[in-house]
């Protein structure tokens, strides 16, 4: 009898959330490959992300400014050696590795003397989305493993967190389920999930946050945990990425009038979290980047404020010149952005997203009122504003004053904005022309094909690039 009840519960769960289950299983296989086959520290900025995770694992949530040109933390000397052990691979496509180099090297110990280490571009980040990697590091320490094995455990822990978060998002999301699954299945997203970067957990958290926002107009939001969870999640996202500040206003736009107090409270909390970390964690550790190249954030800000139309021209010019490369990086350029996927895959991904978009149109509501249209217009403005804010943040901190082109932009920076943009579309709960069962089957079929083709392209790219 117990076995029968258990089987019925499992069958019910699989029937209710098939896309989440299939996505979780297929992505887990892909992430396992990426964790192992991507050589250590060969994801963009992963050495500095790993050092930041080590710092946090020691209880040092806020870093140190060592000088006017360097900031970071005090961590074991061997971990610094490890962070730069594979620097010769970066940008050198002809350089390959073998297992003997990785596992045959002299073991590096957590018990080595501590020293100052500079990682100024990651020490300013909130510790929240480093905690999955920190868990892996701590497990490695408790098992008395060396730094290399702890590093792989950190990658594995981050991957597990991202899979579970993605499955939860796809299970509770009410609209745009397949579109969100497609964004979470891109090689760029998967590469970040399987790294020690905070960006992977951040993207997964944005998917959960978006999924919660799709439930603001039904009874799901009446659960006691709903609003505190949404507020905390938005606060964590904004503390880690202040340029996403406009997403704090989404609950105010989407929630019904009866819930305006809760929505306002979530908005205020999220904004306060971003401000608090900026004061406590960023101000004390932030150093100027590329000052020798003419980069000056204060002067650039004055330029932006005094030449607003010029700034708009700079944005448009940058997107026009870099559209192709940014879209490629958005979908996926692996390694240190030096391992492009096969050309055929980018063409496939365009077709895949077109099919996903066409199928998702079956869920679009046929009628939309004036108030709802206004909400969607405001959400669209938030999405465009977020993309602009991300771009302008690089204009301020990474681009010479008055330059006509924004430096340092990478396509992966726009993945969270793309996920939140799903809220623009007025989706219905059931599709037109198809039964719910057939619609679920089509979703699973499309996602399975997309993921397996992507997995094949990832395997081909990683093996050709590193092995």
From TrEMBL:
Cited InterPro entries = DUF2142_membrane
Annotated transmembrane regions: 20-41, 151-172, 225-254, 260-280, 312-332, 344-365, 377-398, 413-434, 446-466
Which residues constitute the signal peptide according to the record? none
Keywords from UniProt, A to Z, are:
Membrane, Transmembrane, Transmembrane helix
Protein name, entry field: DUF2142 domain-containing protein
Q: Which species does this protein come from?
A: Gluconobacter cerinus
């Amino acid at each position: 009898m117990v076995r029968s009840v258990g089987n019925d519960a499992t069958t019910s769960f699989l029937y209710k959330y098939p896309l989440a289950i299939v996505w979780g299983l297929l992505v887990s296989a892909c992430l396992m490959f990426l964790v192992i086959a991507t050589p250590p520290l060969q994801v963009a900025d992963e050495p500095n992300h790993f050092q930041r995770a080590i710092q946090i694992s020691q209880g040092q949530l806020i870093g140190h400014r060592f000088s006017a040109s360097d900031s970071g933390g005090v961590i074991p000397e061997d971990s610094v050696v490890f962070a730069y052990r594979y620097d010769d691979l970066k940008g050198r496509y002809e350089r390959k590795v073998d297992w003997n180099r990785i596992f045959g090297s002299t073991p590096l110990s957590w018990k080595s003397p501590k020293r100052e280490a500079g990682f100024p571009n990651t020490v300013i980040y909130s510790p929240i989305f480093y905690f999955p990697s920190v868990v892996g590091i701590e497990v490695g320490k408790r098992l008395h493993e060396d730094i290399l094995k702890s590093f792989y455990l950190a990658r594995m822990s981050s991957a597990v967190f991202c899979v579970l978060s993605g499955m939860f998002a796809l299970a509770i999301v009410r609209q745009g389920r397949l579109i969100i699954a497609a964004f979470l299945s891109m090689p760029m997203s998967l590469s970040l999930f399987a790294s020690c970067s905070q960006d992977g957990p951040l993207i997964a958290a944005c998917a959960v946050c978006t999924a919660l926002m799709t439930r603001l107009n039904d009874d799901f939001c009446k659960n006691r945990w709903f609003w505190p969870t949404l507020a905390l999640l938005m606060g964590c996202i904004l503390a880690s990425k202040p340029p996403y500040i406009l997403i704090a206003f989404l609950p105010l736009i989407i929630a019904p009038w009866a819930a305006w107090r809760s929505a306002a409270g979530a908005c205020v909390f999220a904004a306060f979290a971003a401000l608090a970390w900026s004061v406590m964690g960023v101000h004390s550790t932030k150093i100027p980047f590329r000052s020798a190249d003419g980069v000056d954030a204060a002067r650039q800000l004055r330029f932006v404020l005094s030449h607003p139309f010029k700034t708009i021209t700079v944005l448009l010019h940058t997107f026009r010149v870099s559209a192709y490369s940014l879209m490629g990086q958005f979908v996926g350029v692996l390694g240190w952005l030096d391992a492009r996927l096969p050309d055929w895959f980018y063409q496939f991904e365009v077709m895949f997203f077109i099919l996903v978009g066409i199928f998702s149109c079956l869920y679009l509501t046929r009628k939309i009122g004036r108030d709802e249209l206004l909400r969607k217009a405001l959400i669209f403005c938030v999405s465009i504003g977020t993309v602009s804010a991300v771009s302008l943040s690089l204009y301020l901190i990474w681009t010479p004053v008055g330059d006509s082109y924004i430096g340092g932009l990478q396509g992966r920076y726009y993945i969270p904005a793309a996920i939140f943009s799903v809220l623009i579309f007025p989706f219905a709960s059931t599709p037109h022309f198809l039964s719910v069962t057939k619609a679920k089957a089509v979703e699973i079929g499309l996602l399975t094909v997309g993921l397996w083709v992507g997995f094949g392209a990832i395997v081909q790219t990683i093996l050709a690039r590193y092995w």
